[in-house]
Write a structure and sequence with these properties.
Distance between the termini: 72 Å
Structural class: mainly alpha
Shape: elongated
Number of domains: 1
Strand content: under 5%
Helix content: over 70%
Number of helices: 5
Radius of gyration: 22 Å
Number of strands: 0
Order of helices and strands: HHHHH
Length: 124
């Protein structure tokens, strides 16, 4: 019985193993220039502030109503879109840069330096 299963799945396992590319052959991460890092850092600060405000609003007792929650979320989405457009970023680019900053140490250092140049959140 086991030999029958093995004979049926061996070709599938072989194909699966052959289709996996080694890490060395993965494409290099896309290069992020200084202006993109600066725009992303500025957008990140603004989006974080807007998200914090929205979370605080959603935590209020009046936010138990579904229509209040929907209104807060819609305002958050519209404001986030406006911020990204102001910094010439799409939602997809912002998400990609967020992932890259979280996984690429060199890029994270450049991002943190850009944040430091912008000063503390809220201009304080």
């Amino acid at each position: 019985m086991l030999s029958i299963i093995w004979r049926r799945f061996t070709p599938l396992v072989a194909v699966a193993l052959l289709s996996v590319r080694p890490l060395a052959s993965q494409p290099p991460p896309s290069v992020v220039d200084s202006s993109q890092v600066a725009a992303f850092a500025a957008a990140h600060l603004e989006v974080s502030a807007v998200r914090s405000k929205a979370q605080a609003e959603l935590a209020e007792p009046r936010a138990k109503k579904a229509e209040v929650q929907a209104s807060v979320r819609e305002r958050l989405h519209q404001t986030t879109d406006r911020i990204l457009k102001m910094h010439n970023l799409t939602e997809a680019e912002f998400s990609r840069l967020t992932r890259q900053v979280s996984t690429d140490d060199a890029l994270r250092k450049r991002f943190e330096a850009a944040l430091a140049r912008l000063g503390p959140p809220g201009g304080g």
